[in-house]
Structures are given as C-alpha cells and as structure tokens.
Amino acid sequence: MTADLVYAFVGGALLLAVTLPVLLHRQAVSAPMVLLTVGALLGLLPMRDASLSPGEHRVFVEHLTEFTVVVALMGVGLALDRPLRWLRPRSWGAWSTTWRMLGIAMPVCIAGVFLLGWGLLGMAPAAALLLGAALAPTDPVLASDVQVGGPTVLEDDAQEHEGIDEDDEVRFALTSEAGLNDGLAFPFVHAALLVAASAGAASWTVWFAWDLVGRVVLGVLVGAATGWVLARAAFRSPAPSLRLAESGEPLLALAAVLLSYGVTELVHGYGFVAVFACAVALRQAERGHSYHEHMHAMIERLERLMTLVVLLLLGMALTNGLLEHLTWRSVVIGVGLLLVVRPLSGVVALFLGRTGRPGTGPFRPAERFAVAFFGVRGVGSLYYLAYATGQADFGGHDELWATVGFTVTASVLLHGITATPWLRRLERTRERVRADGGS
C-alpha cells in the first residue's frame, strides 16, 4: 500500500468523522463507529506487515494511548461547569453521583469481570484481575455522545458566574466519572501485577498504603496545585506577558496537560488523576471567562486528531490479526461486561440512597439506568493492557488483546447506536417535567 493511498484514506476518514455525525445527527451514527469501520476496511488492503495486532507493537500502543487519554482528561475537566473545590467538602455533595460510580460501581465492576473470567471461565487469576482493571474505567475519549458539550461561560456579573452548572445529571455523571476513573483503575492494575508475581503479605500492605491511597492523593495534590498556579498566572499575574487569558492563547491547556502529568509521574503519583485535577482547578478560576472556551476548543481538536489515529489503527487491527485469537471466553467477558456487569454495578451504586445535586429534584430511575448503562469502554483499556503486559507475563497475551479489542469495538457499536435516541428521549422527558412545574 502506497503512502499516497494512506493519506487519501486518512483524509477521507477524518472528513467522514467530522461531517457524518452532523449530517445524520438524528440517526444512530457516531464518529467512532465511522472511524472503526473505515479502519477495518483499510486493514483489508494488502500490507507489508503481516499483522497489526497491538500486542506486537505494544510500546507504540502504550505511548499513543497514554497521550490520547491525558489530552481527553484535560478536555473533560475543562468541560465541566459544576464546581469542585477540593478544600471545601460542602461542594463535594453536588458530585454525589460521581462518588457513587467511583466508590461502588467501579470496584463492583472489577470484581464482576474478575469472577466472570476466573470463577466461571477458568482464566488465570492475574489475567482475570487485569481484565477487570483494564475494562473497568469508562472512556473520556470515545464517549462524547453521552458527555457534556463543553464549558459554559456568562458575560454577566460574578454572581451569575458562580451559578454556572450542568442541568443534565446524566451527562454530568458520565463525564465526571470518565474524568476520574481512568486514573483510579491504576491501583487495580498494580494489584494484578502483584498477583502475577505471587507477592507476599508485605507487598500487599505497601499496595494498600501507597498504590491505592498515597499515589491517588499525590495525583490530586500535584494536579490541583499545578492548575491553581497556571490559573493565577493566566488570569491575575502582575506581568502582562503571563496573563494569557487576555490574549486568548489556548496552548496553556496543552502546557497544563504535560506539566501536571509529567511532574506527577516524576514523583510517582498517578498522572491521569493529576491531569483531571489540574483541569478542574483551571476551570474554577474566572468561571465566566471566555478563555475556558478557547482552551477547551484547542484540546478538543487535538483529542479528535488523536482519536482518529487510535480508532483507524484499531479498526485496521480488527481485520488484520487482532481477532485471530478471539475465543468464546473473550466474547462472554465482553458481552457480559457491557450488558450485565456494568449495568448491574451502576444500578447497585445509584439506587442506594439519594444521588444528584442537593436542592434539586429527584434523579429519576430512567436517568439512573442511563448512567448505569452508558459505560463506554475505549482507549484507556488499551493503555492499561499495553502497560501491564510490558511489566509482567500474564500468559495468553494474544487472547487478552483480542478480549479488550472485541469489548471496545462492541462498546463503540452498542453505545453509539443507542446513545442518541436514549438521551434524546430523556431530554424530552426532562423538558416535559419542567413544563409541568417539576412534578
């Protein structure tokens, strides 16, 4: 295949990804669906490399997906209007749905996949736990159809600026969950590595104190501090050259991604958590300023480009080696996760007590079911598998890659087809309730 043909296909794929969802916005078509399809067709063309399975290009896949995820995490953090002030616990109540999905649904989901793989299908414990950890986080990259659209800014007085908030609890919950659970899956990936190494009790004590608690706290602290410092400089620095908000220079967002991630990883915290915390801290500063829109737009374009590359390559791999090692166990795990484990874990989390923002109306059952169901799997799962298989031998790596590849593909198709009609129906119901006076 010539380079000219590659350029033509990639250009055509990007054009389709941008235009088709707009032209067919009332239909069940998403950009990831289009890109995966085009990539799969591209993979059928004659190629010099006999296989494009990501397992054979693990290091490249790890770094590509790593960068894609951190860019997406900055995007979702900047897109969220609802305040989260880490030093003011009272503001945490507005994120109650998020905490339930992270603290209840995510561990239940990991345990469910582990039990399905190990207890029912006979996989090795380390491999089953790795699959649970890799497939547990929802994706900030491929889930744009079910997430908030971007930051809202107001040009009025400061009181109104403080009132900026999402009124769609479903989209807010799915966006905020995706922003945090990518980083919070890391401790369980490390747990899988310990199982693979047959670690002793002392190692598990260190895992609990450092991997599960310490590195998360460190990620939040470094990320929030980085965001606060950059926000102070951009909006309130005494030096005009540092007040980037006045010039509208959006590259500060990319600098924030690299700084927060790089510094946190250097001190051995969780960089994914840090990037999201940094984005949230940036968003809290001058919340009504249009500079947030400029930063988010720049990150969104970069994320779209990275998504294009990842999905084209994944689609090519699907028809060029990745699914050769797909087994019935892979299919059971993928389908079981999407249709049983994730929905049930979400139901358990969201139907235990009150969720949503304090002072608002009830979070209706249909909305809770939507949050439970739309747990899109994607680029983060590919990253975690690439990272872990480079650290230890879990055995059957080809089957692990086939399982994750199949699950991500099934998620893109299933959630891409159902998201638009389901969320549109919820929006109509919400508008009707408002028209009736909130009853």
TrEMBL record:
Which residue ranges does UniProt annotate as crossing the membrane?
A: 6-24, 31-48, 60-80, 101-121, 184-205, 212-231, 251-282, 302-319, 331-353, 369-388, 400-423
Keywords, ordered alphabetically: Antiport, Ion transport, Membrane, Transmembrane, Transmembrane helix, Transport
- Location(s), subcellular: Cell membrane
Keyword Nucleotide-binding found: no
Q: Which GO terms describe its molecular function?
A: antiporter activity
Q: Name one GO cellular component term.
A: plasma membrane
Q: Does the keyword Methyltransferase apply?
A: no
A single Gene Ontology biological process assigned to it is: proton transmembrane transport
What region holds the Cation/H+ exchanger transmembrane domain? 15-424
* Superkingdom as given in the UniProt entry: Bacteria
Classification via InterPro entries: Cation/H_exchanger_TM (IPR006153)
Q: How does it sit in the membrane?
A: Multi-pass membrane protein
Q: What is this protein called?
A: Sodium:proton antiporter
